[in-house]
TrEMBL record:
Family per record: Belongs to the cytochrome P450 family.
Main location: membrane
Descriptive protein name: Ferulate 5-hydroxylase
Keywords linked to the UniProt accession: Heme, Iron, Metal-binding, Monooxygenase, Oxidoreductase
Record carries keyword Glycoprotein: no
Bilayer topology annotation: Single-pass membrane protein
PANTHER family recorded: CYTOCHROME P450 84A1-RELATED
Keyword Heme: yes
InterPro entries for the chain: CYP450_84A, Cyt_P450, Cyt_P450_CS, Cyt_P450_E_grp-I, Cyt_P450_sf
């Protein structure tokens, strides 16, 4: 049954067996949660029990034994890390991250304009875009050569996170390393150490050289303000007195940001473009709205967004049908009861955000792309209190990068649609588009979206 443990497989099983499904995998209890009501119980009513994270051998090793925020168990360390990240890294006041979004989107538009009239691989384009945004926000530079090396490290981490490791289920096999995974993990973490240690050393040197402090700070600078050789966590209110970060903490947090912020946003942009190419009526309506609100003489700017009502409805509909993280992975800290079922401590809990967004009792024509449903009063929103729509999760472990992610998503899609008219290549019809996805930590399109742009605006694009 292993190949059924995807968002689609579990949704099918839930139709047969209900919103709480228990599976045994070796010694492991696995529970799949697939309805809005059971999600509310897990993420709201009992969230103090359901807020730990499961981790396999690869995750534990590659996060320096959960020295980060995303894989830390719920508790004082996680709480202070989360406070630090929310206040220092993801805050709207960190203008530099928002600047990187704008600059990189501009760069992408110039690149597309240079390729007008030819096939553009939108999938590759937007994955490159979000990697550039996050790389720049984290490290402050956008050197292509260094970035290529870093991407190779990220790709190996991603493969190791998702690899089926028999030792996760039969622990005594770990020391034999029959699949060679332990050797790969050691090599991958050594490469990351080599890469980020140099960046950290550079930042420390730069800071010493300029005692007035750098004007433009990146995420490494923000984290270095908490740097110490000795880790420290206490519950003090003052952040600087309550937490000290080691190099390992800093490296692990940077990896959280890289993994949390690249594929999620890129897959949402690609799905948005694909759904709109498949629904020419909606595409026309969004582009008409852009013409009315922005006009054809300039590009979209931030203050325009609140007037781009239909564009925002389309993006919500995309996040409903294609939540970038389809299964939210949690673990129970102690025994719990959900809908009358007993769930033992240390169970792995998978909350199927994908199935919940398509729940037929919560959504009319649940499988259809119908953005206008979000124009109605009282329709669920994704802020976390409506459990039929949880693309960013809800409660304690919900996404801390939501604002930045939404900003990048809106900026990229609005620019792509306002600056260009898009045609499918080689006489392909909208209904020919293959809308399958592949399952991993995120669920991007199985086939990269390709389309042909032609300029739409009266102003120059580069
Ligand atoms: C469209 C964009 C995004 C979506 C849909 C999204 C979605 C999510 C979801 C569903 C979770 C897990 C919630 C849970 O386990 O209950 C999560 C966690 C997280 N996200 Fe995002 N995310 C997005 C963008 C970002 C960005 C841009 C960043 C960082 C720059 C980020 C960083 C994180 C981190 C660090 C966590 C772990 C939080 C924790 O465990 O306490 N995300 N995100």
């Amino acid at each position: 049954m292993m190949d059924q443990l995807t968002h689609r497989g579990l949704a099918k099983l839930a139709k047969q067996y209900g919103g709480v499904l228990h599976l045994r995998m070796g010694f492991l209890h696995v529970v799949a949660i697939s309805s809005p009501d059971t999600a509310r119980q897990v993420l709201q009513a009992h969230d103090n029990i359901f807020s730990n994270r499961p981790a396999n051998i690869a995750i534990s090793y590659l996060t320096y034994d959960r020295a980060d925020m995303a894989f830390a168990h719920y508790g004082p360390f996680w709480r202070q890390m989360r406070k630090l990240c929310v206040m220092k890294l993801f805050s709207r006041r960190r203008a530099e991250s928002w600047d990187s979004v704008r600059d990189e989107v501009d760069g992408m538009i110039r690149a597309v304009a240079r390729n007008s009239g030819t096939n553009v691989n939108i999938g590759e384009l937007v994955f490159g875009l979000t990697r550039n945004i996050i790389y720049r926000a984290a490290f402050g530079s956008s050197s292509n050569e260094a970035q290529d090396d870093f991407i190779k490290i990220l790709q190996e981490f991603s493969k190791l996170f998702g690899a089926f490791n028999v030792a996760d289920f039969v622990p005594w096999l770990d020391c034999l390393d029959i699949q060679g995974l332990n050797r790969r993990m050691i090599k991958a973490r050594d490469s990351l150490d080599g890469f980020i240690d140099c960046i950290i050393d550079d930042h420390i040197r730069k800071k010493k050289a300029d005692s007035t402090g750098p004007v433009d700070t990146d995420m490494v600078d923000e984290l270095l303000a908490f740097y110490s050789d000795e880790p420290k966590v206490s519950e003090s209110e003052d952040l600087h007195n309550s937490i000290k970060l080691t190099r390992n903490n800093i490296k692990a947090i940077i990896m959280d940001v890289m993994f949390g912020g690249t594929e999620t946003v890129a897959s949402a942009i690609e799905w948005a473009m694909a759904e709109l190419m498949r629904s020419p009526e909606d595409l026309k309506r969004v582009q008409q709205e852009l013409t009315n609100v922005v006009g054809l003489a300039r590009k979209v700017e931030e203050p325009d967004f609140e007037k781009l009502i239909y564009l925002r409805c389309c993006l919500k509909e995309v996040l409903r049908l294609h939540p970038p993280i389809p299964l939210l992975l949690h673990e129970t800290a102690e025994d719990a009861t959900v809908s009358g079922y007993h769930i033992p401590a240390k169970s792995r809990v998978m909350i199927n955000a994908w199935a919940i967004g398509r729940d037929e009792s919560a959504w009319e024509d649940a499988e259809e792309f119908k953005p206008s449903r979000f124009l109605r009063d009282g329709v669920p929103d994704f802020k976390g209190s409506n459990f039929e729509f949880i693309p960013f999760g809800s409660g304690r472990r919900s996404c801390p990068g939501m604002q930045l992610g939404l900003y990048a998503l809106e900026m990229a899609v609005a620019h792509l649609l306002h600056c260009f008219t898009w045609e499918l290549p080689d006489g392909m019809k909208p209904s020919d588009l293959d809308m399958s996805d592949v399952f991993g930590l995120t669920a991007p399109r199985a086939e990269r979206l390709v389309a042909v742009p032609s300029p739409r605006l009266l102003c120059p694009l580069y």
